[in-house]
Design brief:
It contains five helices and five strands. It is α+β, with helices and mostly antiparallel strands and 150 residues long. It has one domain (4-147): 6-pyruvoyl tetrahydropterin synthase/QueD (Tetrahydropterin Synthase, Chain A, 2-Layer Sandwich), CATH 3.30.479. It has a five-stranded mixed beta sheet. The mean pLDDT is 96. Bound molecules: ligand LPXRUNBV and zinc ion. This is 6-pyruvoyltetrahydropterin synthase. Pathway: Cofactor biosynthesis; tetrahydrobiopterin biosynthesis; tetrahydrobiopterin from 7,8-dihydroneopterin triphosphate: step 1/3. Its cofactor is Zn(2+).
């Protein structure tokens, strides 16, 4: 069996948002999200690490061509999220808070629609240098998959 490797690519995008849940009252939102619920909103310079993995192709010496990986991430994620207001521009966040967890789910689903089946292993989305979420597609429901379609 050929050796298995994991490739990682890090990209950045900037987006605005406000943490607010449609399932909570205004007062509950203020208490839960604090300054992040401020009506003016705020922005983050997000960092997305995408990890793909598989066996090394004998002929190319690659698990995947980094040029392809760059293109998949740009098309599926950066073109859609960079310099956007998540709550206003992305329908997925109309009925769920734009937490970094929900953002990771959105990004994962977008990537699975572009990256060849079985290659995508894990994503790590950082909202601030201190806060990051790791997602590998566990627990996805049909609802998320359908609502993620643009
Ligand atoms: N589980 C989650 N909790 C919080 C989220 C989130 O997406 N998921 N998001 C936020 C805020 O949007 C933001 O990430 C926090 O901003 P901030 O407090 O400014 O960032 P830091 O924690 O890095 O900075 P400190 O100065 O250390 O507070 C909040 N919670
Ligand atoms: Zn925020």
């Amino acid at each position: 069996m050929p050796p298995i490797c994991y490739l990682s690519r890090t990209e950045h995008f900037s987006a605005a948002h406000r943490l607010h849940s449609p399932y909570l009252s205004d007062e509950e939102n203020r208490l839960l999200f604090g300054k992040c619920n401020n009506a003016n909103g705020h922005g983050h310079n997000y960092v997305l690490e995408t990890v793909v993995g598989g066996s090394i192709d004998k002929k190319t010496g690659m698990v995947a061509n980094m040029e392809d990986l760059k293109r998949w991430i740009s098309t599926a994620v950066l073109d859609v999220l960079d310099h956007r207001n998540l709550d206003v521009d992305i329908a997925y966040f109309k009925n769920r808070p734009s937490t970094v967890e929900n953002l990771a789910v959105f990004i994962w689903i977008r990537l699975t629609q572009t990256v060849p089946a079985g290659l995508l292993q894990k994503i790590i989305v950082s909202e601030t240098p201190k806060n990051k979420v790791i997602f590998a597609g566990e627990g996805l429901t049909k609802t998320e998959l359908e609502e993620c379609l643009l």
